[in-house]
Structure prediction request, 298 residues.
Amino acid sequence: MAAPVTAEDLFDPEFLESLQRLRMVALRVPRGGRFAEQRSKALGTGIEFHDYRPYSPGDDLRAIDWNIYRRLGRVFLRLFEELEDLPVYLLPDVSRSMWLEDPPRAHACLRSAMAFTAIALGQHDRVGVFPFSDDMQVLMRPRSGWSSLPAFAQRMSSLGPGGSTDLTRALRRFDGMGLRRGLVVVLSDFFDPRGADALVDALKKVRHSMVLVQLARAGDRDPALQGDLRLRDCESGESEDVTVTPTLLTRYRESYDRHQRTLTDFAQRRGIGFVRVDADQPVVEQLAHLFEGGRLEA
Prediction:
């Protein structure tokens, strides 16, 4: 098993500096949050004018536009957009298979999660971290403030290998928490024994906006295998004797491509952000593909 990621791996000035040009923008955040930088669905006493509506008994008289009243003799209210925070919920995959390689793709996974954390905290949003394997745990409940960044790095660096992958169960538990609607970022290799269709069915039930970050390697599609081998499932421990032939590798690639198409087609249909991150390369430049023009719209 590879060495665990350290807080220094996740929290260094050069890494944080590379994130400064990236920003998450919510098209509309659900009401009920605290004052921040995102446009809320609520209309009230914010600072940016949005629209007018006719006066109704009980409305705040301070919102009446008296200029319109003097010109038209009709009473209208001026409505302003409220600015609130965007809840960002990070779900990094820490199943056993994520820790086997050298370096393990769990390192790139957690570093990507730390990137989203730094971006969100830097714009006064709230961040919660919910790692999963065969179940989901609450590592950090949603909190805000740039000063919280070292605590996020410390807590995420404490994570180690979990059990087998069960994203369906993890998402079901997450949904049961009844958290305020926000942005869910799922970071995983998306290799689940139930297959891509089961993954998509589970993701369809998520009631939040979503971003999918897939941790990958070139060998995922083109494994360097040949001959008579005994392959062992790194999570279940089950073994299977196989003879790796060109025909078998072709069938494997076809299956892998179907898996990928299922995920990407789902993301495209739902307008969900989807990015593949090569675990052997720096993560920020790869994540930047999500932030067209320097920002991600959720």
